[in-house]
Structures are given as structure tokens and as C-alpha cells.
Amino acid sequence: MRNDKIKALHVQVAEKLIEQLKAGTSPLQKPWSTDNLPTFELPYNAVTGNRYKGINIFSLMLRDYEDPRWMTFKQAAANEWKVKKGEKASLIQFIKATELVAKRDESGKPVLNEEGKPVKIIVRLDRPIVTTAWVFNASQIDGIPELRKKTLAELGWDPIERAEKLIAASGAEILNKAGDDAYYDILEDKITLPLKEQFDAPDKYYATALHELGHWTGHKDRLDRSIMNAFGTEDYAREELRAEIASLLIGQELNIGHDPEQHAAYVGSWIKLLQDTPFEIHAAAADAEKIFTYLTGLEQKRKLGNDMQPEQVPLRTKNTPISEHLTIGDKIEYNNTVFKVQGHLKQGRLRMEDMGTGNNFILSRNDNLYSSLLQAKQNPIMETGLSKQTALPFYQQTETIAPQVSRR
User: Fold this and answer.
1) Residues in domain N-terminal (predicted)?
2) Residue 91: its pLDDT value, please?
3) For residues 378 and 322, is the Cβ–Cβ distance under 8 A?
4) Helix axis angle, 267-276 relative to 9-23, nearest 10°?
5) Residue 395: its pLDDT value, please?
6) Are 247 and 211 in contact (CB under 8 A)?
7) How far is Cα 140 from Cα 147, in angstroms, rounded to an integer?
8) What pLDDT is stored for residue 354 in this prediction?
9) Of the candidates 9, 21, 23, 22, which has an alpha carbon nearest to the alpha carbon of residue 60?
10) Is 250 exposed, middle or buried (0-12, 13-18, 19+ CB in 10 A)?
């Protein structure tokens, strides 16, 4: 434990992952299927219910606990649960990029609200701060309720159907043909997959498709990663690691399963990569989260489009100022939820949050949802003496085929 405290988290995780990759027992090598068994779950906080992200996933999964629930000592105590005697905590870390501070006027005095309390604002830090925390697994805790995992029948959706919808929402061009090749071709922006009937189970086909869709996000018009790399190179191994972690995340979200057999050939290159550059696991996990957010965001936008009622038009008064774009901090009521603009990304894209569900996604100015949100912003909801009309702008269900990326 002493040595673990001295080493940076990414070094600890890289060393443990290398050890398990060599033994064939790492999370990236463990298959799981969509048979009607309890669903697979990634580590999450037992109190908040939030999934841990980035490198923290591996920091906790590599501990090999069967229970996915984790918590801090204070969280356990607040719920009258007790850490078992002699148990040791596991390290996680967070990057703090913003801070909540008191708003001040021109003279430097705190600005107060109508109740006389200081108004708080979020400011971006000049330099992000890395903060650490120590958490315990539920199996290290006395008094915590027994874990009850849902079966697939209790999920409320069919994993195969949801995978098909996500792929359709991407607009990715996919070519199915006889053979063993599964890859994304960045020059043609197309994905090639074997025929569905060549797989011994439907979930394996979709798990492979989602892996290649991860590469597809690297195109310059999407997440813009460097993916034109020759097979066998270090950069090739980097991209494969990102896509595999992302497919694990998406597989868990959809409960589509995880089939590592298709990518077992990369294990040796991942071991060498992590030995040479331990920080790569941190960078790869962070990029995989971006892939996850991008793809699930596309699914979210498609769902919103399908739920729209074109005959309902937002109302606007003559005195309402017209905005020409969405800006950071905007909170827009739309389609029975509220969307918040969290930040700007490259190429005019926005980082968005659906405040109703907590889901994050990336929004392009070319997306129909952008136009709809802008129109909703320009046409705020009006109250009448009878009822409140939901702001639902006109929506054109036009679908363009997005360029595809192909890769082995």
C-alpha cells in the first residue's frame, strides 16, 4: 500500500493492467454475453448511483471485486454502514476544471440575491486541479443492502434493438460482406463488417459494429483523432485501445455484451505501449469516454427527433430578443426537458447536457437539434390562464449518411 501511495494513479493502473493482460484476466479480455443473466455493471457510486469514469473505471475494476458499488468512508458513515476492520481503500482521482465562487460587483463586494444570500457563479480555473479520493467496495462494508442486479428482461429495452437504433442514429455507412474482415476505412469513411449470419450470436455482431463505430468517431469531422496509422505501429495500438475501452463502455450501457476475441491480437502491443508510456491508460480512458459521449449523444438526438410533434409551434412575444446562436450557460426548455450548453468544442460544436436525464452529448451546428434548440431559445414558452404550452419547434426528419471510418 505504501508504494501505491507514492506512485501516480496512472502508473498503478498501468502496472496492474499489464499484469492482468499478460494473465489474460483483464477487463478488456473478459467476455460477457446478453443471455438472460443479471446485467453487467461498471463501477458506480453506491450513494449517488453515478458511474465512475475514465481511469477510475480501471482503478476499481482491476481490484477484482464482484460488487460494482463503491463509496467513500464518509458516505458509508452517513448511511450508518461500517467499513470492515482491516479493509483498505482504493484510490481514484478527479480533475477539477471549474470552481464555484461568490459573484462580486465592480467594487469587489459580494452580490446578494433577493434573500440576501451571496450569488454563486462557476468560473473556469486557469489550471485544472487533480484531486484524489479513497473509496471502499460494497463487499468491504457491513450493513449495506445486498446487491440486486437486474436481468435483461427488467431493463425496459431490447439490447439488440437499441444497438440497431444507435448505429442508425450515427448515419454511418456500413457495408456487410462475406469474409472475416471488420474495419473502418478513413479514406472512404465506411465501415466493413462480416455478414450477420457469420457470427454465432447477434450480440457479437453488434459488439464488433460498435467497436468499429468507435474508430468512426475519429474522423476529422467528428472527434478528430489521429487514426491514419499503419498496422503494427504504436499509434495503431493507441487507437485500438481507445476503441476497445469505448466498446466496453457502450456494451455495458446497452447491455449488448463484450466480445474480446476479435481484438485479442492487440494485447501484446497494448502491453508494450503501457510499459513504455504508463500515462497512455489515462489518455485512452479519457478519449474512450469522449467516444461514448459522442455516440450515445447521437442516440439521444435521434430519440428527441422521433418524439417531436411537428404541429406544435413555440410562441414568442414581440419584445423577445432574437439570439443567433447557442452560448455557454444557456438553459433551454424543449421537448419536456431542459438542455444546458456546457462548453464549446472544436469546429463549432457544443458540449451539451440533458438536465432531465443527466446525459451529456456533443451537438453540431449542422444537427437538426441545434436548430430546434435555437428556435426554442428564440421563442420562449408563454404562460396562459389555461395551460402551459410545451415549446416544440418544427422538425424535419432528414437523415444524412455520415462519412465512415474503417479500421482493422
Assistant:
1) 9-116
2) 96
3) yes
4) 150
5) 24
6) yes
7) 13
8) 79
9) 9
10) buried
* Residue 242, CA distances (Å) to 249, 289, 295, 303 in order: 11, 9, 14, 26
Q: Grid coordinates in use for 398?
A: 432528414
Cα R_g (the chain), whole angstroms: 23
Helix (H, G, I), strand (E, B) or coil at 204: helix
pLDDT value of residue 46: 94
Answer whether 62's CB lies under 8 Å from 16's CB: yes
CA angle in degrees (0–180, nearest 5) for 100-106-108: 60
The predicted model gives 66-83 an average pLDDT of: 96
The angle, 0 to 180 degrees and rounded to 10, between the axes of the packed helices 280-307 and 9-23 is 90
Write the single-letter amino acid at 152.
Answer: L
Assigned C-alpha cell, 362: 456533443
The residues pairing with 118 across neighbouring beta strands, listed in sequence order, are 112
Q: Read off the DSSP letter of residue 188.
A: T
Sheet holding 183-185, edge to edge: 174-176, 190-193, 183-185
Identify whether the C-beta of residue 210 lies closer than 8 Å to the C-beta of residue 245: no
Structural element, H or E, at residue 141: strand 141-142
Task: From 200, 187, 5, select the one nearest 91 (Cα to Cα).
Answer: 5
- CA-to-CA distance for 218 and 354, rounded, in angstroms? 24
d(CA 29, CA 259): 8
Whether the CB-CB separation of 361 and 342 falls below 8 Å is answered with no
The whole-angstrom separation of Cα 397 and Cα 55 is 38
- Helices 159-170/234-254 angle, 10° precision: 130
| Alpha-carbon gap, residue 222 to 213, rounded angstroms | 12
Write down how long the chain is.
408
Q: Are 350 and 341 in contact (CB under 8 A)?
A: yes
- Give the pLDDT confidence score for residue 359 in this predicted structure: 74
The Cβ of residue 130 has, within 10 Å, a number of other Cβ atoms equal to 11
Residue 406 in this model has a pLDDT that exceeds 70: no
Full set of structural domains in the chain with CATH: 309-378 (2.30.30)
Q: What is the mean pLDDT of the chain?
A: 82
